[in-house]
Amino acid sequence: MKITHAAAAAALAILSSAPAMAAEEVNVYSYRQPFLIQPMFDAFERQTGIEVNVVFAKAGLVERLKNEGRNSPADLIFTVDIGRLSDVKQAGLTQSVTSEILTAKIPAQYRDPDGQWFGLTTRARLIYASKDRVAPGEITSYEDLADPKWAGRICTRSGNHAYQISLLAAYIAHYGEEKAEQWLRGVKANLARKPQGNDRAQIKAISEGVCDLSLGYNYYYALMLADEEQSVWANAANVVFPTLGGKGTHVNISGIAMTKNAPNRDNAVKLMEFLADDLAQQMYAEQNNEYPVNTNVPWSGILKSLGTFEADTMPLSTIAEYRAVAAKIVNKVGYDQ
Ligand code: FE
């Protein structure tokens, strides 16, 4: 497999001219880091003989896809968050894929009803709760974060970040716009400090006594446990799998979409189906401590140790429809101010 970094223009030229040389290949644009995806692509190459070429970048791949238009070598785009996947669809850069294998292996709530994107892993938005200052069972839902008893005790990242927008969009999907706004005002009123930093920075703040509760994805907790310095932060907090609307925990996905002009469409479908199958699902989910979408596949040991939970069953395609309203509410309540 070839992995190219977007900055290397020369390498990209090789990728663009590759079709004439390689008999069978598939080209991937990925926002996900090489160490997460390389093992699966290597396994796919071994099994099928189809070469997987990857362009990896932290930003700008969607713009590149747009600029390349019909000449784009890309067949598949890998990214995280329902927001980013639905943005690619809305921009008209994807095509519909119909596959019995994909619909059998990926639960309906984690894929686009039109087949324009498919989730491969899920991540649960957890509440991290101080071991010292929050009793087990004292908080069990996202709704509870707006309770005045937590005044001055909550830390979160920016309300405009995709992860927070998705949670608020889910809240709107369950309760409507007005109640969601009330809730966000309540959470804001409870903040210990201005929203800042990433998911890990919030749990670090708990370990430093800045706040008692925060929000973050499960894989960050697992990553922190495995890191010498950060395990101190993680060990300061318990994880809570909160409910939303009396239902399960809000989850998001990492996923894939086929580009509109995929030059290697058949190979791309083969790769998508391979990625939904047991072997790749286990490799991918374990590598980043995410949950496999394929329910046949066991969770990593560390995720098992965090406990089981029910996921919210609201389709992510529905949640995605409320993202624009969610962003409007964040600004209206001045969440980051
Ligand atoms: Fe992340």
Describe it for me?
- The longest helix is centred in the N-terminal third of the chain and has 15 residues, at 34-48.
- Helix 2 (34-48) links the parallel strand 2 (25-30) and strand 3 (51-56).
- The protein has helices at residues 9-17, 34-48, 61-68, 82-90, 100-105, 162-175, 177-189, 199-207, 218-225, 230-234, 265-276, 278-288, 301-306, 316-321, 323-332; strands at 2-5, 25-30, 51-56, 76-80, 94-95, 118-130, 154-155, 213-217, 237-240, 251-259, 291-292.
- The chain has 2 domains: 5-122 and 251-299, D-Maltodextrin-Binding Protein, domain 2, CATH 3.40.190.10; 124-250 and 311-332, Periplasmic binding protein-like II (D-Maltodextrin-Binding Protein, domain 2, 3-Layer(aba) Sandwich), CATH 3.40.190.10.
- The protein is globular and about 65 Å long.
- The relative contact order is 0.18.
- By secondary structure, the chain is α/β, with parallel strands linked by helices.
- 42% of the residues lie in helices and 17% in strands.
